[in-house]
Amino acid sequence: MKEKTIGFIGLGNMASAIIKGLRQSRDFRNLKIIGFDLDEDKRDLMSRDYDVAITENTLAVAKDSDILILAVKPQSFDELLPLLVPVLKEKQLVISIAAGKPLAYLCGYLGKDQPILRVTPNINAKAGASMTAICQNEAVSPEQLEAGSAIFDAIGSVIVLEESKMPAFSAIASAGPAFAFTFIDALSTAGIRAGLPRAVAQQAASAMLFGSAKLVAESGEHPRALVDQVTSPGGTTIEGTHTLSRLGFEHAVQEAVKAVIDKEKTLMGKAKDDKQ
Ligand SMILES: NC(=O)c1ccc[n+]([C@@H]2O[C@H](COP(=O)([O-])OP(=O)(O)OC[C@H]3O[C@@H](n4cnc5c(N)ncnc54)[C@H](OP(=O)(O)O)[C@@H]3O)[C@@H](O)[C@H]2O)c1
Q1: Which residue CA neighbors atom 2 of ligand 1 most closely?
Q2: Which of 164, 194, 209 is the last residue of a domain?
Q3: What is the pTM of this model?
């Protein structure tokens, strides 16, 4: 991995989170990272803060990298992918982090012999805590899968999944942070209503969520069993969980996940139609 060059097309939110994570990891600290963004400010920032060598244009990233990461919005793919075809090298690993762009769509442009990983990281990469899922096409070698996994391992943890499971995974792990931030904001606002300063309310809410997630992950206990442990009979907490249930909290969460999956299916269907 040390001698490889990783290239990023697009240096926005996700690319900067991934690059920041890579630079903080011992294995990738000195790795050559190149990239290009249409936005000059982003280019300057990534060059200055994360030692990203800025190429002369978008296509030069593809030409000069061993592993190419496509980190532009899904809407840009139809324009970008055909331009990449003539410059990609045989066996060059291409990693797409775009939501709603399946392997069949990517292979439709790049060819089924181009090694491609479809990867679903999340914004928690900014804190080195992205839970990332990876699936691959048949052209990907075991070494390439290992190299791709190592990149995303540096910014959290990685799971290799069948592509059919990606929409469900993505709705929980990729869209989920937005739900978690909404929950933290709602708790903080409730704290302010009850008289806490914003900073204290927000710190209490985020530290609580962090600790609860850690407890679930480390104990392996069913979350319901943990709810039982904090709701004493006739106590105060059961009033809160009862109110959440009465107002449809679990139902709202399940419907939110389903809405994300439905939207991704629509986008995937559209991607297929656009390519036909
Ligand atoms: N944000 C998330 O939580 C998240 C989570 C998982 C996956 N993703 C995926 O990550 C990808 C990037 O999302 P993001 O939130 O990082 O987007 P973003 O912040 O908008 O970054 C994309 C950047 O790429 C630039 N760009 C567009 N076309 C380009 C081209 N041809 N050459 C070079 N640069 C180009 C854009 O410039 P302009 O703005 O000037 O067009 C923009 O600065 C998306 O496909 C998204 O689905 C995002």
Answers
A1: 123
A2: 164
A3: 0.89
